[in-house]
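To the wet lab folks,

You asked to see what we're planning to order before we commit. Fair enough. Below is the target structure as tokens, and below that is the sequence we designed to fit it. If anything looks off to you, flag it before the synthesis order goes out.
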């Protein structure tokens, strides 16, 4: 359960699909103490209405802002990555997220406000029932109110839920044709490999170009 709530918390930070692949590789004994630090930074980004919305990179359909890159770098830096590695992982994350979002929209996966609100209610319940509830609350408590925090996450998940829907459909499609003779673990490992391929192909298809 502890790993599960850590994965959830990371998804609450920046989006559920992509970040935890990086977090688990560098999380150390002081990992838990970093939650409040990240919550404080997240509040600053959420309240920064004048933050840089200048374009960092353009793709065939999507765009990535400097603010998105800066926020992703701050996340990885907070949890212990070197400056060089944090920037590398952050750029990979924002490219993958934007590329997958564009693919999801193109494939017809959208969400209503009600769907987002309903999903956030499920996350709240999950947090309340988790043994690592204090980790998530350390982030939330940095905001002026819980309502402010969830209002921020509402904007995050308007983009992330279409990606989740798209990837859930891809996973179902993949596993429906998986050989019956294979074990559940084998199928899951192959799906994870395929998932990485989907992300890489999505980024390649977007052909992001950094704006000078």
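Sequence we intend to order:
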């Amino acid at each position: 359960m502890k790993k599960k709530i850590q994965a959830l918390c990371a998804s609450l930070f920046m989006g559920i699909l992509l970040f935890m692949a990086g977090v688990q590789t560098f999380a150390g004994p002081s990992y838990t103490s970093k939650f409040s630090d990240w919550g404080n930074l997240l509040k600053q980004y959420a309240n920064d209405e004048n933050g840089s919305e200048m374009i960092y990179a353009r793709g065939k359909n999507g765009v990535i802002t400097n603010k998105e890159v800066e926020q992703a770098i701050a996340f990885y830096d907070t949890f212990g990555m070197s400056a060089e590695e944090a920037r590398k992982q952050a750029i990979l994350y924002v490219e993958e997220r934007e590329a997958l979002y564009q693919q999801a929209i193109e494939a017809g996966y959208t969400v209503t406000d009600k769907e987002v609100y309903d999903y956030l209610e499920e996350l709240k319940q999950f947090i309340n029932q988790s043994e690592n509830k204090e980790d998530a609350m350390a982030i939330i408590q940095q905001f002026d109110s819980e309502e402010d925090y969830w209002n921020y996450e509402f904007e995050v998940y308007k983009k992330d839920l279409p990606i989740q829907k798209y990837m859930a459909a891809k996973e179902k499609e993949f596993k429906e044709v998986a050989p019956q003779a294979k074990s559940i673990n084998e199928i899951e490992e192959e799906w994870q490999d395929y998932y990485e391929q989907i992300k890489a192909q999505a980024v390649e298809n977007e052909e992001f170009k950094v704006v000078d």
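Structural context that might help your review: Residues 38 and 127 are 17 Å apart (CA to CA). The chain has nine helices and three strands.

Thanks,
Computational group
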